[in-house]
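Q: Structure tokens for this one, please.
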Amino acid sequence: MWAAAGPGIRRPPQAEKTLPNEPVSPLQGVDPSEVEVDRYTTELHDTMDRKDIPYIEDMLEMAQLEGVTLLACKTSADLFDLTKEDFVEGVEIMLAADFLKRATGSDLHLMY
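A: Here is the predicted structure, written as tokens:
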């Protein structure tokens, strides 16, 4: 079982608060522009190509073909206004309580 989050999710404002001795990022509370996201995505894909590492999308597809079930937390999806269409094909959205019922007796759970 997998639980995954997409790259476009922004943290809520209360998550941006820092502790008194914690260093403050110059970009704290600033959403990256589409240009920046595209640049970082391109750089990541270039690095993955050079190192012959499959893209995340390909790894998720391979996992699904091997029978892995991809799950998303309904509470988190609701918090960030995400719908089933925002996730890759095949992702199931469920409540934590339903996940725990389903996970009982499973051989492996990988959550992220």
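A few notes: The chain has four helices and four strands. Residues 45 and 56 are 10 Å apart (CA to CA).
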